[in-house]
UniProtKB/TrEMBL annotation:
This protein's name: MFS transporter
SUPFAM superfamilies for this protein: MFS general substrate transporter
Superkingdom field: Bacteria
PANTHER family linked: INTEGRAL MEMBRANE TRANSPORT PROTEIN-RELATED, MAJOR FACILITATOR SUPERFAMILY (MFS) PROFILE DOMAIN-CONTAINING PROTEIN
InterPro entries assigned: MFS (IPR011701), MFS_trans_sf (IPR036259), Sugar_transport-like (IPR052528)
GO terms for MF: transmembrane transporter activity
Keywords: Membrane, Transmembrane, Transmembrane helix
Transmembrane segment boundaries: 21-46, 52-75, 87-106, 187-206, 236-259, 265-287, 299-321, 327-348, 369-397, 417-436
Native organism: Mucilaginibacter galii
Amino acid sequence: MNIRPSEHITNTDLNSGLKLVIADGLSAEAMVVFTSGTFLTAMAIHMGASNFQLGMLAALPTFTTIFQLASIWLVQKFNNRKLITSVFNLLARLPLIAIGIMPLLFSGTTTIQVLLILLFFQHIFGDIAGASWNSWMKDLIPGERLGSFFSHRSRMAQTLNVTLSLATALCLDYVKTHYPSQEITAYTTLFLAGGVLGMMSVFLLLKTPEPKPTPMDDKVFKLFSKSLKNKNFRNLLAFNSLWAFALNLATPFFAVFMMKTIGLPLSYVIGLGIISQLSSIASLKLWGKYSDRFSNKTIISICAPLYITCILAFAFTAMPASGVTTLVMLFIIHVVSGLSTAGINLALSNIGIKLAPKKEAIVYLSAKNMFVALFSTIAPMMGGLMADFFAGNTLAWNIQLTGSKHMTINLLNLQGWNYFFIIGGILAMLSLRLLAKVKEQGETHRARVVIHMRATFRNKLRRNIGREATNNLYSPTLAVRRQVIKLFKANHTATAYKKSA
């Protein structure tokens, strides 16, 4: 196992390395499923977390991103991204294992305060490793394969996410129903399993080849400020930061809203998340192909309005009197949001890698991550602080019809989290104005791509319809021919028999 960077990487080594990167992504995705997202939110609610503490949990992954500056310094000093990524990923997995074994070593359960502290250190080490990994992948993966490779990796990771999420949700619901006293033990066991799977990803990273990086001579803060002087990259930072703020004001509380306000059980919330994941998986290959063929900016301009519509629609899901209507609305929202977030996340990641100069990629990508993280951190914490205020204020807009029968039609009913969904959607719309200032090589106007997508869809539809029509046309004809031949043979045999008689 060679932990030093390689001067030259053969095609065989590259293909082998890309397979290891996919395997690393799968093991890391399994770790994320068990230790974050809806399961972490459900665990925190069970432990009695306040709205502010729920906001802190949502903000932790981005709050610690400033520590990526340490990654720049380490890469500059040691010039070995594989070693830095592996060591700090190893350190990031230890707090997860600690959360899993603490209830076994000490009497009582882990408190929400201890959980926050351990996850704080987990994210610090993970961010240092992540910045180094980004730079490593920038050099390892050929530019012309960037979109297709990461879409394939994401598709496989999300398929695993769906499978594990569903199985885990069913197991947790079983434990809650039959062994309610063991619910917290089930959550901590997930953390232990996640930590072990995370260790497997470290082993896979150590086997992945690393191209020798170009040394960076300037000081860390001088390099960091260099990325801010790049006008085009600065425009990307402005758009991505406002977009992240808008989304993180609303999206971290979707699961909380569905469980607390609508009253859905955990299995329903996980099921809707799986529907979103399946929609994302189905569309990732398409977005990866269009990302390489056209531009990432175009993909964002197509997908972002769809996702904004989903955020705004969430504010109306608690209004219908019928539970079936609510579930139908949530189903449609999750299908469209999965489709759109697949394109947005892929394009935002790729456009950052694409616009970053190769020699200083780690600096540019770390600057992007830190600015986005700052706004991503502020948003959910603000949401958690203001949640109680908005919970006591209601904005209603109704139409009343009076006559022989009195009827009231609810058009708008905002309370609690609904305010954040409306505000977040409006801010996200404003951020799209900043996207227009970003310049990307190979950029194609959105209208042309939409026309191309429609034409491709119509051609596929026509081919399928044509194939069906052909099958329907020829199948009866062949059947008629067979019957005619049978009748002809029968008639011919009868005629021959008469002549012989």
